[in-house]
Each structure stands twice: as C-alpha cells, then as structure tokens.
Amino acid sequence: MKYKLLGRSGLKVSELCLGTMGFGTEAGWGADKDTSFAIMDAFAGAGGNFLDTANVYKLGTSEKIIGEFIHPRDRDYFVIATKYSLKDNTTNPNASGNNRKNMMRSVEQSLRRLQTDFIDVLYLHIWDDLTPIDEVLRGIDDLIRQGKVNYAAISDTPAWIVSKGNTLAELMGWSQFITLQVEYSLLQRTPERDLIPMAKHYNMTVTPWAPLAGGALTGKYLRGEQGRIKPESNRRDDNSTRITREVMAIADKLGVEPSHIALQWTRQQGFECIPIVGATAVKQLEQNLKTIDLLIPGDDIEKLNEVSAIDLGFPGKFFKEEGVRQNNFGGFYHQIIPRNQ
Asked: What is the pLDDT of residues 277-317, one digit of tens each?
C-alpha cells in the first residue's frame, strides 16, 4: 500500500480507507468483534492505516470495536476518522445537529468509546442547515487547540457552505477542512457539478462513500445474488443496470473483478480521491485490496465515463459549449494549460 497526503495537510494515509460502518451486528447485519478484528488485522497487514467510523455506526459499537482493537496496539500507527452530528440518543433537542454543544458532547463520548486521547480527523457528518458554519469551524478549531482532534473534515454538505467555511477559516486563522466525504461512484456522479470542483480548488481530498453503490456495481444483483438494496432502488434501475453491465464487461476483459473496476475508476478521475472500502468479511476486504494493483486503460476509462455521464446542468454544461469556449478563449482553449483548481 502506498500513502497519500490528506488534503492540504502533511498527514499520510493509505490509498484506500477502511469503512467500519458494518462493525457490529445491530440491525441484523454486520461483522462481530472477532471478524472486525480480523478485517483490521488484514488491512494493517497490507499497509492500511486509515479507518473511517462515526459516533452512530452500529449505535456506537463500531467505535467501541476499533477502540478495543487499537488499545493494546500502536495507536499512533492508525489514522482514525470519526464523525459527529447524528443522534446517539433522543433525550434532548441538542443531542443531534451541527451545533457546538452536540459537537463537544459527541467528541467526548467518541473518545471514551475509542479508548484514545485524540481523534485524527473529525468530520461534520451531515449538514443540518441551521448551525452557522463559523460556529462549526471555531468549535473544531478549539478541539484541535485542546489536542482532542488533529484535523477538520466535512461530509454531505453543500459546496457553497464548505467554500464559505474554508474561506472564513483562512481569514480567521482557524483550521480548514482538509477532506470532503460524499457519495460518489459510477452510479452517483452528481458531485461533479460543484462539490468536486470545489474540493479541487481547496486541495481537499475526496473520500467517497458507497463507491460500489452498496454493492450494485459488483454485479451481484445481475447474477441473482441477494443483498440489502431493494429492487425498487435507483441503484438497480435500468440506467444503473446499463452502467453495471459495462463495468462487468471491462472487468471480464481485464481479468479482474467488477469491484476493482468501480473502485479504481474513482481513483483515476483527475482529483485526489481515497475511496472508503467497507467490509464485513476478510475475504471481501482482500478482494478490494487488489484494486491498488490495477490501472484501467484510457480507452476503458472513456467508455466508463461515457456510459455513466450525467447532465452537469447550468453552468457546468454551459461552460463546455463550443461557442462559449470560442468567445471566452478566442480559439485557444485547447492550447491553455490550466492551474490545478
């Protein structure tokens, strides 16, 4: 496993991130503690050091399992990312949301469950459309100054909010968001409209969740296998089936698994990307780890991009019109090398 710098920071993380939402057996599915330990052992054995969890995953069991795993081991080896915002109880109106009170409460509880003195990366989990973004950033910055958090990150939030936040942080001398976590896959490319260009501009690493679209891109549903995605889901509609068949065809041509194609596609899209690979079995993780040895040929990337293309809408689609490019660049569009924005 190679290592990448996380966003604009100097933090070195593995090129795949282990998603631990399935650590625990609550809700009738997931990996028990022994299996979760085996998965983390296999991940670390392959050089993986980047773990993703949240305060609400399996009602806190995910964090507890990670805490029990790392406690007798080398805590400094692992980069642990967790999240706050979503409810872990319903006792009061401030036991959820992005507000500072919930942030401080949630972080203290996460630290206890993880059996650690610090969280490496703290994500705002989902934007509540209520809390001022400066309240969020000042709160995380205070936690960083206290040594309880090392880096700030954000997930599932509109691009303009994230952009405003990072601009305010730069102005005020607060810690900026270094990572953006969003749903992104061949079946979900809408972040390309504004979230991903914004992340590129601020040198934020994108950490896609559901890069396999809940398993749909593995082709298992087309093979008649069972899973947690309902037949009426848009991940299994005609368009998604068409895209998945192309993934399977390219995988067959290259002699790899469809999951490798789907994961590697996110890594070859021209921006800093570390997909979150969830696993509830060691065999599942071992299969996904093979992704790092794959390079999809350019013509196959083009096929995947074409079959999964979305309407960028305005203004993204407008900017790509030839007439607009002619007027904006005077015929020199293809001769200009842009900055990495």
From this structure: 999 999 999 999 999 999 999 999 999 999 999 999 999 99
**Claim to verify: residue 300 and residue 317 sit in the same structural domain:** no
- The size of the chain, in residues, is 341
To the nearest 5 percent, what fractions of the chain are helix, strand and coil? 45, 15, 40
Quick check: is 57 catalytic? yes
Coil/strand/helix, residue 195: helix
Residues 325 and 244 in one domain: no
Q: Mind giving me the DSSP string for 223-237?
A: TT---SS-TTSGGGS
Quote the domain boundaries for residue 29. 3-311
Question: Is 166 found in the same domain as 68?
Answer: yes
Q: How many domains does the chain have?
A: 2
Q: Sign (positive/negative) of CA torsion 226, 227, 233, 238?
A: negative
pLDDT tier for residue 228 given thresholds of 50, 70 and 90: confident
Q: Are residues 173 and 38 in the same domain?
A: yes
Catalytic option among 3, 57, 123, 221: 57
